[in-house]
Structure formats: C-alpha cells, structure tokens
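Class prep. Protein, please:
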Amino acid sequence: MIKSMTGFGTGETIEGKWRTTVRIRTVNNRYLSVKVHSLHERPQLQVYIEKALKDAFRRGKLDIWVDIEQQSDSRKKRFFDVKVLRDYLAELQEMCKALSLAASPSISDLIQLGAFQPLQEADEELWPVIEPAIREAISAATDAREKEGSYMGTELKQIMDKLSLLLTQIKERLPMVTEELRSRLRQRVDELAVEIDPDRLEAEIVLLAERSEVREEVVRLETHIERVNTLIKKTEPVGQELDFLTQELLRETNTLGSKSKDLQINSLIIDMKVQIERFREQVRNVE
C-alpha cells in the first residue's frame, strides 16, 4: 500500500549516562529534504542522522530534533578536558624553560590561551548511543505515514472507479452522437429544400464525425486509470509517477473536451475534471 508523506514519530532511549529524545516531523514535498534542528556543535553527528533519514525515506520534507542529556551525578561530572589543559600547561612550561623565565604558568595564562575546552565525547562515540532513539522515531513516523497512506489509497481507488464509470458512460454515448449528427444534417438539408447527392452528404457526415472522434483519448484514459490502480497497490514510493499520471489524465480529458461537441459528453467531461482535481490533491501527499 502507498505511503503518505505526512507523519510524526518520537523515540527515547537511556544508554549508560545518556538520555536521548528524538522527534521527527514529515510533511509533503516534491523531493526529499532533511533538516536537523539540533546538534549544531556536532556536525559529524548531523551527517550520521541525515544519512539515517535518507536511507529510511524517499520523499518529503523531514525535520528532526535530537536532545541529548547526561544523566550522571553533576558532582562527579568533569566539565573541562584535562588532557587539553595538560598539553597547554606542558607547552607553556617548556617555553618558560627555554626563555629562562622564573615565573610559572598560571590559570589566568591558561584561560587567556583558551585551554579550558569543554569536555565532550567524540561524535563517533555518541552515535551508537543516540542511534536507537533515532531508529525508534523513524519507525514511528513510518508507521504513521503508512496508516495515512492506506486511507489515501482507498480514496484514490474510489476516484479511479468514478472516472471509469464516467468513461463507460461516454463510450455508451458515442454511437448515438454520430446518428444524431446524421439526423441533424439531413433535417437541415430538408429545411433548406436543396438537392444534395446522398454520397456527398454521407461523406460530410463522416468528416464531421472524424473531427469529433474521441475514442483514442478514451482508450488512453482507460490505460492511465489501469496504471494508477496498479501503482496504488505497491509498497515502494510511487508519488512521482502518480504526479505524472495526473498530468496525463488531465491532458487527455482536456483533449476529449475540445473535440466533443455533444452536450451530454461535455457534462460528463466536467465531472471527470472534478475527479481528477480530487486525485491531484491526494497525490500531492503520496511518497
């Protein structure tokens, strides 16, 4: 069954000293667009997250928020990277020795040099911690998209059934159109009281009938409807092909309307355009 591009999912895990909360929101979009709204100070983690989303989804605008909290006792928490401080201090001591300076480096010297760097785990170490929460949120968002997609599939099938019924009514009307055209022409000739060769009259009737012939458009419309019914049963993304078929359905219907001079058929064509517009609105949200 087809999937919607609209969905929402959350995930939460506690791994060691870390608590991770993830929210994913997806809406319709012509292409796949991913936006990570957090972790700006961790670009490598953003890359990992974007890849996970692009592997899971094929179409839509995806927004994700990832919150990471450290759960350990703040009294035991180390705020600065001691290794960096030691490296800075050792370098300063070496310089003092080389320059024969009596004074030793102070904390103020280290602060001015920017030695007090916040202590944080490497992105590569944090990814296995937050990945389960992201997978959980992706799964929840996917389930929501599939659930809405099932409703959309039902709606699209109903629209195609209505289009098929309207096309059937047009096909049933076509033979009557030619006969009514022949009858009107003969009546007009009689009213004018002129003599016309029967073969010439029949040739004119055939010519006018050919100009308003729409059987080819009807066949193409039936083919497009059959293709739509096949696509909406598939599980892989079909939204872009449905977009294309929407254009083709409208193109053939417009051509049919421009050729037809029959009021009853034209009325059915208007009903078809209404159904195609409903179809277009639904397809905009299909992955």
User: Anything to note?
Assistant: The longest strand covers residues 60-70. The two ends are 11 Å apart (CA to CA). The chain has eight helices and four strands.
